[in-house]
Amino acid sequence: MENLTDKIAVVTGAGSGIGRALTQLLVREGCHVAVCDVNQSSMEETLALCDAENPSGVTITGFACDVSDESALQKFVEDTRIRHATDHVDLLINNAGINGGGSFIKSPREEWERTFDICWRGVYLVTRNFLPFLMKSCEGHLVNMSSANALRAVLGGHVPHTAYSTAKFAVRGFSESLIHDFRFNAPHVSVSVVMPGHTGTNIISNSLAILGANPPDAWTSEDIQNAKRRWKIAGLQDVNRMTDEQVKAHGQAEIDSMIEFGLPPEDAAKIILDGVKRKHWRILIGTDTQSLDQLVRESPEKAYDPDFVDRWREANAGYTQGHEKLD
């Protein structure tokens, strides 16, 4: 799929981050796009940005939709069929996801299951419902957004990260299993699994809103204690000496640094579409992910050892390979 002009793409989670960047890049390449997001205002902002730079008059449509709700998702499928006047789509990008349910033991069950449902069940349901359209394309391509946490199921250092990691491992396994399924049963359709590392998106803020959790400036005493507990596990010194206001400020700084120091979503989107055009089934994004992949491959039994993070940081500091060399 080297030329995207006049192709039809579907992008979930297009209200911000990589989803928004992908939508903008697709429009610039002359691709018609149907997007969805659970946050209607964010999605409409994406549509407005695309309309403002739409040089070729492509069709761009949006639909407010929770990808874990199949009845709502089916309405999105029908909306796409009608508004794009199509019986097929050429590119399906499962990008929607949130972060939460860190501990299987301590996190609320509702938070754990909500995270898992969006990150895994959403991918499954979107693929299940759009697959008949994808199979009617002359050359269809499915893109599933997994994560570096499908290489190592821990957040950063040693912080539990169970719901998200479990879902992303499921997305990775699902995508890889489809390689042969498509080869034998739909040879004109291909698949890519994407594993981003630290990318500068607002996934934390979005996740808090979707899960109904408080932002740092509104943290309760329980929120503050939970944050201190998490940071202590992560190795933050003198956490018990922090005042409530210092804890809130540190929590906000975490969110800000995620955006400031991560790979720009625009760069991630370009890597993804370059991989799609080359029909790469495995797309790693970021040198942090590349070095992580290398270390886990070299010593899988040591992936969860206490000193792994030190070894990873050392490897990441000098890592220079391009993503395509590990595809």
Topology of helices and strands:
Elements: E1 8-12, H1 17-28, E2 32-37, H2 40-52, E3 60-64, H3 70-83, E4 91-94, H4 109-135, E5 140-145, E6 154-155, E7 159-160, H5 162-185, E8 189-196, H6 203-211, H7 221-234, H8 244-260, H9 265-277, E9 282-285, H10 287-298, H11 308-317
Parallel strand pairs: 1-2, 1-4, 2-3, 4-5, 5-8, 8-9
Antiparallel strand pairs: 6-7
Radius of gyration: 20 Å
Per DSSP, the total helix count is 11
Binned strand content: 5-15%
What structural category characterises the helix and strand content?
A: alpha/beta
Subunit organisation of the chains: single chain
Question: What form results from the Cα inertia axes?
Answer: globular
Please give the alpha-carbon distance between the first and last residues: 17 Å
What sequence of helices (H) and strands (E) makes up the elements? EHEHEHEHEEEHEHHHHEHH
Give a written overview of the molecule.
There is one protein chain. The protein is α/β, with parallel strands linked by helices and 327 residues long. Helix content is 50%, strand content 13%. It is built from 11 helices and 9 strands. The protein has helices spanning 17-28, 40-52, 70-83, 109-135, 162-185, 203-211, 221-234, 244-260, 265-277, 287-298, 308-317; strands spanning 8-12, 32-37, 60-64, 91-94, 140-145, 154-155, 159-160, 189-196, 282-285. It has a 7-stranded parallel β-sheet, sandwiched between helices. It has a two-stranded antiparallel sheet with strand order 6-7. Strand 4 (91-94), helix 4 (109-135) and strand 5 form a beta-alpha-beta unit. Helix 1 (17-28) packs across helix 9. The protein is globular. Residues 320-327 have low confidence and may be disordered.
